[in-house]
Design a protein that fits this description.
Blueprint (H helix, E strand, L loop, with lengths): L1 E2 L6 E6 L2 H12 L3 E6 L1 H4 L2 E3 L2 E2 H7 L3 E4 L8 H5 L4 E6 L7 H6 L4 E5 L5 E4 L2 H8 L3 E8 L14 E8 L6 H23 L4 E2 L9 E3 L4 H4 L9 H10 L7 E5 L2 E13 L10 E4 L4 E5 L2 E9 L13 E2 L2 H9 L13
Parallel strand pairs: 2-3, 2-7, 3-6, 7-8, 9-13
Antiparallel strand pairs: 1-12, 4-5, 8-10, 10-11, 14-15, 14-19, 15-18, 16-17, 17-18
Length: 337
């Protein structure tokens, strides 16, 4: 498909996240009219130190609308003009034919993945767990075949490839993608203002899908068989802005957000998870092939003190539930978690 040259003066952003917010602010600086359509779940998610997306949009005086089904929204029909561009950021709907036609082709998705790899959800978490080196982002056309959070088939209009850093945590991925998103969208707007853009079909030979995750269900650490590197990557993959990877101490659930390698050495598997040293506010824990230092936060306030010799562990039933859990998709292809 060829997207014809067009003078755009209004941009409608769909979805949520810190990336959407920063893009909205940057595009407003370029004098575009900005509106945001989101859902209650995304509007109420905490995205930065200022609070939720909703709180940030109100503070920035950016006009927004909340709907749990964009295809039934009466307001969207009034918002779309002849000079509008729509861009999705993890929106919780699949668009129907009517809305796609209203945008006349100018309805795009920002995909912060090396499409078609890492389709699905929890993109940054999966990349950290897999120790993925290659990343990318693109703007692609939205079509009727797309199922949000499952399948993206629209042609790619502009894209960027880049490398992940081995030390990045989840927040670092969000920061990088925010920079990339602003750069990519401004590049697209500059091009489409002057000439047509021809879309590029996706090479499905490279496609693979990984499902959405729920931190509190899937984020349990396997101390029994994972080595030090695997545990460290897992903890990093569920860190801020999420609750953190989970385990148990003295029958109490704890979250771990920060972990570093202290020493490489060999231990018997029976020693896994034993707390061998207590520092000021952190704890040294034994793994199969080393000692790691953890910041441990109790899920609920506890009067029990952690002592050397205590064991951090994960009940087998929690690991089983984490592996068995499946994304709970509603009719729009998104998880209800």
């Amino acid at each position: 498909m060829i997207l014809k040259q067009k003078k755009i003066n209004k941009i409608i952003l769909f979805g949520g996240s810190i990336i959407l917010l920063d893009v909205a602010k940057r595009l407003r600086e370029e004098k575009f009219i900005i509106e945001v359509y989101s859902s209650n779940r995304l509007l109420n998610e905490i995205i930065n130190s200022n609070g939720s997306l909703k709180t940030n949009l109100i503070s920035e005086k950016i006009k927004y609308y909340s709907t749990n089904n964009i295809n039934k929204s009466k307001q969207i029909n009034k918002s779309i003009t002849a000079n509008s561009l729509g861009i999705g950021f993890g929106e919780t709907w699949s668009f129907d034919k009517k809305i796609i036609n209203q945008f006349n082709g100018y309805l795009l998705d920002y995909m912060g993945i090396p499409l078609p790899r890492y389709r699905g959800g929890a993109h940054f978490t999966w990349m950290i767990i897999q120790n993925e080196k290659n990343n990318g982002a693109c703007l692609q056309l939205i079509n009727e075949d797309m199922i949000q959070g499952v399948y993206d088939s629209g042609e790619i209009l502009v894209e960027i490839k880049f490398k992940n850093h081995s030390n990045w945590n989840i927040n670092d991925y969000f920061k990088k993608q925010t920079i990339i998103a602003k750069k990519l969208i401004l590049k697209f707007l500059k091009i489409i203002n002057k000439k047509d853009i021809k879309g590029k079909k996706i090479n499905e030979d490279n496609s693979f899908y990984l499902p959405r995750l729920n931190t509190k269900i899937n984020g349990w650490i396997n101390w029994y068989s994972w080595n030090t590197k695997e545990i460290l990557r897992f903890i990093k993959a569920f860190g801020d802005p999420y609750d953190g990877a989970s385990s148990m101490i003295n029958n109490k659930r704890v979250f771990i957000k920060n972990a570093i390698l202290v020493k490489k050495t060999t231990f018997h598997p029976f020693q896994n998870g034993l707390i061998c040293k207590i520092n000021n506010k952190t704890y040294d824990v034994i793994t199969i092939d080393g000692i790691i230092n953890l910041e441990i936060i109790f899920e609920k306030k506890s009067t029990k003190l952690i002592k050397v010799g205590d064991r951090i562990y994960t009940p087998l039933k929690k690991l089983e539930a984490a592996f068995k859990s499946k994304p709970n998709y509603d009719s729009f292809g998104i998880t209800k978690n």
